[in-house]
Amino acid sequence: KKLDRLGRDTADMIQLIKEFDDMGVAIRFLDDGISTEGTMGKMVVTILSAVAQAERLRILERTNEGRLEAKAKGVKFGRKPKVNKA
């Protein structure tokens, strides 16, 4: 349905597209309105998968920066400690 859900990174996407192409199968990404049919389709999918990979990396960076900032401010992560009835 969406291109960025098929593979983790650009190399994975290229390999998957090649494997499917070798079997005579074209992939259509309905939400994105693109397909691996033809040379141009494969090129567009490759470029968009690289963009999706870059976006995932940016999200990871921002998430990690936010965690570090929260820890520096004293925010505790994880489950709250259990209360023992003793």
Model description:
7% of the residues are buried. Helix 1 runs antiparallel to helix 2. The protein is elongated, with a radius of gyration of 20 Å. It has a single domain, classed as Resolvase, N-terminal catalytic domain (Rossmann fold). A two-stranded antiparallel sheet has the order 1-2. The protein contains two helices and two strands; from the N terminus they run αββα.
Average pLDDT, to the nearest integer? 88
* Terminus-to-terminus distance: 54 Å
- How many domains? 1
**What's the CATH architecture?**
3-Layer(aba) Sandwich
Number of strands: 2
Helix content: 55-70%
Task: Enumerate the strands of the largest sheet in spatial order, edge to edge or round the barrel.
Answer: 1-2
Enumerate the spans where pLDDT stays under 50 for 5 or more consecutive residues: none
Q: What is the global morphology?
A: elongated
Q: What structural class do you assign from the helix and strand content?
A: mainly alpha
What oligomeric state do the depicted chains represent?
single chain
- The top level CATH class name: Alpha Beta
Q: H/E element string? A: HEEH
Strand content: under 5%
CATH topology: Rossmann fold
Could you give a short description of this structure?
This protein is mainly alpha-helical.
Summarize this structure as a short list of keywords or feature phrases.
single chain, 86 residues, mainly alpha, Rossmann fold, elongated, DNA binding
